[in-house]
Write a structure and sequence with these properties.
The protein is mostly helical. The chain has 2 domains: 199 residues, no CATH class; 199 residues, no CATH class. It is 76% helix and 0% strand. It is built from 17 helices and no strands. α11 packs across α14. About 10% of the residues have low confidence.
């Protein structure tokens, strides 16, 4: 191979979805680290705890309120290229209704939390609209994933997740940062990302004469979405139920310490989520033994960076936390070391769960994450008032359980006895993971054969920490 050819190949790799997504993850990780550290030092444990409460409950509203439909948007935008315009129109209407419902629910729940926990009024009012912005932006990002347009995927993610660092730093140095001002720094970029996602959807909806989504197609969409709703809700509970329970049972200052402990190790999954994001639809596009082999290759690629980085983080945390966050966060060191174990398994679990979705088994993710959430919730309820360290142990144990269950199920699906086949579809519906349409639609739209996904996009992720490191 000549030198120009090698250079062209290297440039193509650098511009590929895996590298660009990895760079975006690093940008988000670095921005969150800087903004989170500065805001934690200025706000202190009490202010950090107040911000954590509104962000966690708003995120839960977002996860439940989307009903799993953005994940279906990614899946079927890739599976049905000839029906993308109809799909966009369907998901635009869904996004509008869900955003309105999320705003109403957020208003009621956050106002109750304001009264019960004595949260700042400005912070509560700002976050009433956050869930709606997150849902709209997520639909745009998931559609871009489905059509393999990673430029929009990474743009929306960078603006909504990394851009808040800029106003946070300005507010920290210009004025005395308050929880309300910190909340505004997160809500405004979320709406900018929502505007970009909404614009992408509007431009992709096609002419008014586009045939609407059929009832058979809707059945397939809602079937896939329903299973993802349960799985993502279980993931959110497994990842954040410990902090939610602590917020209700202990002073907000203790929650602030625990939040910093979770944040200290939260950048670790960023090194493997790009592998999952690109690998999930790539596996979904294959069949038979090729799919089984790609499954374990993807999981193996995620193990290597964690095996190198996790021990290094364990060594660095005892002096990094006091140096970066300040001496008043010294009590967060031991919980951070314990939560680091769970963070490593969090990253592996996200990859394994995405692989289960790629095999057409999104419903089993609810079992893995539900089991992990149960362990975390029981530990937090029993030990929240006694020891933050014990809560951290149960939180990590929850993700260990979830990962082991996911790997066991993947082993059953991919073993060479024929069980790696795509699940059968119900009559009149498009099979989840199959490459065919309802019989009455095939003749009219022969273009619905399986697309060739050489560089596909992946499912969206749910980070454990929502306010950065």
């Amino acid at each position: 191979m000549t030198r120009p050819a090698r250079g062209a190949r290297l440039l193509a790799i650098l511009r590929g979805p895996t590298v660009t997504t990895t760079l975006t993850n690093l940008l988000i990780m670095g921005s969150n680290a800087i903004g989170g550290i500065v805001s934690a030092r200025v706000l202190g444990p009490d202010g950090r705890g107040q911000l954590t409460v509104v962000m966690l409950w708003s995120a839960l509203i977002n996860v439940v309120g989307i009903l799993g439909l953005p994940s279906a948007c990614t899946y079927y935008a890739a599976r049905w290229p000839a029906r993308r315009e109809a799909l966009v129109r369907f998901f635009i209407r869904a996004a509008a209704w869900q955003a309105a419902a999320a705003t109403v629910v957020s208003a009621g729940l956050l106002w109750w939390l304001r009264i019960r926990l004595h949260l700042p009024t400005a912070l509560t009012a700002e976050y009433v609209t956050w869930a709606a912005a997150a849902e709209i932006g997520l639909y745009g990002m998931c559609y871009a994933q489905g059509i393999q347009d990673f430029r929009y995927v990474n743009l929306i993610r960078a603006i909504s997740s990394a851009a808040p660092t800029v106003p946070l730093l300005v507010l920290c140095f210009a004025v005395r940062l308050t929880p309300g001002e910190a909340g505004a720094a997160y809500v405004i970029p979320a709406w900018i990302g929502a505007a970009i996602g909404w614009g992408l959807l509007r431009r992709s909806r096609g002419p008014d004469q586009t045939p609407a989504v059929t009832w058979g197609e809707r059945g397939s969409i809602f079937s896939y979405a329903r299973r993802n709703l349960v799985s993502f809700s279980s993931l959110a509970l497994n990842a954040n139920s410990d902090q939610m329970i602590l917020g209700m049972l202990v002073p907000v200052g203790a929650l602030g310490l625990y939040s910093v402990a979770a944040s200290a190790s939260s950048p670790l999954p960023a090194f493997v989520t790009s592998i999952s994001a690109v690998g999930m639809p790539a596996v979904a596009a294959l069949n038979g033994r090729a799919r089984a082999a790609a499954t374990w290759q993807t999981l193996g690629r995620a193990l290597l960076p964690l095996a190198v980085l996790a021990p290094a983080c364990a060594v660095a945390l005892p002096w990094l936390i006091p140096a970066l966050y300040g001496p008043h966060y010294t009590n967060a060191i031991v919980p951070a070391e314990l939560l680091l174990i769970g963070t490593a398994f969090t990253a592996l679990t996200v990859v394994a769960d995405d692989l289960l979705r790629a095999h057409g088994h999104p419903g089993f993710v609810s079992i893995t994450q539900g089991a992990g959430a149960l362990v975390t919730i029981v530990g937090a309820l029993l030990l929240a008032r006694r020891s933050l360290d014990a809560v951290a142990i149960f939180s990590s144990l929850g993700f260990v359980v979830a990962f082991l269950l996911a790997v066991a199920r993947l082993r059953m699906i991919t073993r060479p006895d024929g069980r790696h086949r795509t699940p059968r579809a119900r009559p009149g519906m498009i099979a989840i993971g199959a490459h065919r349409t309802p019989a009455h639609r095939t003749a009219a739209r022969p273009g619905l054969a399986r697309p060739a996904l050489t560089q596909p996009a992946g499912a969206h992720q749910r980070p454990r920490n929502l306010i950065g490191s």
